[in-house]
Amino acid sequence: MTISERQRRLGRPDVLQRHFHGPIRFPGSDWQWWLANDNAACDAAERMDRHLRAADTKTVTTLRERKGRSIFRIHSDRGDFFAKEISLRPSRKYFGAFFGVQNRLFGYDHGSAEVDNTLTLNDRTHQGHDILCLGERLRAGLPTRQLLIQPWLDGWINLGEAFQVADEHGRRSLLYRMEALLKAMHDARICHLDINNGNLMVSTQDAKAPLRAIDCAKMETKVTQPAVSTALQIGKMLRELYGRDEADLATRYAQARAMQRRIAGEDGVNEATDTLLALSLRYRLSKSLSRRKLVTAPFVNIDGPALEKCVRASKKNADVPAIVWAQDHPVMADEVPAYSGH
User: What SUPFAM superfamilies does the record tag this protein with (predicted)?
Assistant: First the structure.
């Protein structure tokens, strides 16, 4: 019995039905593809489909295989493409991917979530990246493998690489553009939740081009605490760019607070954001703290010393000197920030 296109679309995430055609299948393939209204989308999907069937081993290069995620570069006369296979483990993520549900039970980081989050980011900030197609391999009607394809960002490198080779003027420009992206996310009530040097892209051909955020699978697009979200992201990025040198911490904290004030305004600088800036500058928080709960909470009441105690229980943070607290507020020297304005 032939399954109609309408039957294949039934129950699938609204974002796929609104933004893509399909799903379609190429002859002899057990993959199905959702295609954007772009001539390049069909070309990219067909080339990747042939590679997955081992029918063509020349036009696709495997760049990395790690933790169930494979990264590919698809070569084409139309321009190259980026492809990423997304792990759907544990198996309950099959249901998350099928319905487009993002929660603790069915997972936040399946392919359907990444499509939705990426398109939402691009729509609200224009600093994301296009998606050409989403491929799926089904079993018993549920996706067990998903693969995302986007245009290759030719002439772009990640922020970490750009910052490392930049001179003082170049670093100031990069910080300014990073701040502009974080401001756009703040205003759009978006928290990346996997922000790092490798997930922010910088154009090597246009020194004024806005940064782009990629790898949006874990993103939260319904932030209720944008100032908290901003503090977490500022602290994380400054720690990634400058490291965790204790001698520089007071300077970085002053720099972070100045950036927080410019992005979130005076109302967005308070004891909670000061605490989170200090913690995220000094510690790795992802394994010790539910940032998603923090940024989506109806209100925020943070006990800095107690939270630090929890964070320091991680082996990755145990060797870092503890913060000095005064009435639950971090005590830092009042220093002039290294980057104090535009």
Answer: Protein kinase-like (PK-like)
Give the strand pairing for 69-74 and 81-86: antiparallel
Q: How many CA atoms lie within 13 A of 289 on its CB side?
A: 23
- List, in order, residues 6 or more apart from 237 with CB less than 8 Å away: 178, 182, 195, 196, 197, 200
Both structure tokens of 222: 């319904």
pLDDT 10s digits, 49-84: 999 998 888 999 999 998 778 999 999 998 999 999
The candidate with the shortest Cα–Cα distance to 280, out of 158, 170, 202, 191, is 191
Instruction: Specify whether the CB–CB gap between 13 and 116 falls below 8 A.
Output: yes
Q: What is the pLDDT of residues 224-268, one digit of tens each?
A: 999 999 999 999 999 999 999 888 999 999 999 999 999 999 999
Check: CB of residue 231 under 8 Å from CB of residue 281. Answer: no
Give the span between the Cα atoms of 46 and 81, in whole angstroms. 12
Could you say which DSSP state residue 49 is in?
Answer: H
